Amino acid sequence: MATGNRYLGLIDKFRAVLPVSDSTRLISIGEGNTPLIKLENIPALTGKNVDIYVKYEGLNPTGSFKDRGMTMAVTKAVEEGSKAIICASTGNTSASAAAYAARAGIKAFVLIPEGKIALGKLAQAMMHGAEIIQIKGNFDHGMQLVKDVAEHAPVTIVNSINPYRIQGQKTAAYEIVEALGKVPDYHCLPVGNAGNITAHWLGYTEMGKISGDHPIMVGYQAAGAAPFLKGEMIDDPETVATAIRIGRPQSWDQAWAAQKESGGWFDLLSDEEILAAQKLLSEKEGIFCEPASAASVGGVLRDIKNGKIPEGSTIVCTLTGHGLKDPDTAISQCAVNPQAIDASLDAVKAAILDKL
Ligand SMILES: *Cc1c(COP(=O)(O)O)cnc(C)c1O
Asked: Ligand 1 centroid vs 178 CA: distance in angstroms?
């Protein structure tokens, strides 16, 4: 029960629409309640009159939206007596599972693709004490192995095929409508396994049961990992945006339903376009997200310019994870000062005047 004004996490706040009871022990680290930030400088670059908001999910406790689903999945796993959870992950799910398992006092097993996980995410899973199993394969191989092993061992799967993950993640849609005071015209997000677009659509349709109001849902994929554009699963997904390096989306049918029912679409971006959008958000708005997250903004800017998204629209983009998750990719895009200068006033003054 809420005491005073203290925020006790999203299950506590949204318990009326979540599958918990008054006696459920909530496994929470204060997730959710992330800011909806209006972009001030980027929209003008399109030459069109639009309002773009970003839901900065990188400000969740472990730095991604996965915490919304994980608080629910781990809360229910503990309630059902589970002593261990397991997931396959491109990184953020493992970081989140590891943290919530630590909080709950249970064990987390995480399967990650060897060498293809961003440094920050690996650091998190390690620090939180997860059992990390690197596999010589990609996320899709890991996911199949997790499903198979869960039939033979007493472990609860906390990937987004766990329905409680979707329940927790739908709360982002509730927060957006509360913050905006209305339903946005468009909601755009990067798509990997497609659990998040499914969860948002669930939240919006629950809220719109009476009014019928809902946004148009738009999903953006990386060109090298775009099964929704191909119309079928793919075997060798490849992209710099490792969080969406997925060829066999687990929420395939649900995501198609969200697209069709909302009147939305899927599209793809090259790695170059994704990185350019990440840099643009950092440089023009002071918002640092990871590459996968920037696919939403990169895609939206293109669809505003080409008129697919009309003037006057209110658009929300989900920034799924924090930029600090993947320092290597960030640094590799930036020109670092080539050489050190003398530690003297003259040298530093000259360096500054040179840039003004
Ligand atoms: C998990 C993740 C995604 C993809 O979400 P899905 O639910 O798998 O579609 C996108 N961006 C980031 C940063 C993620 O961690």
From this structure: 23
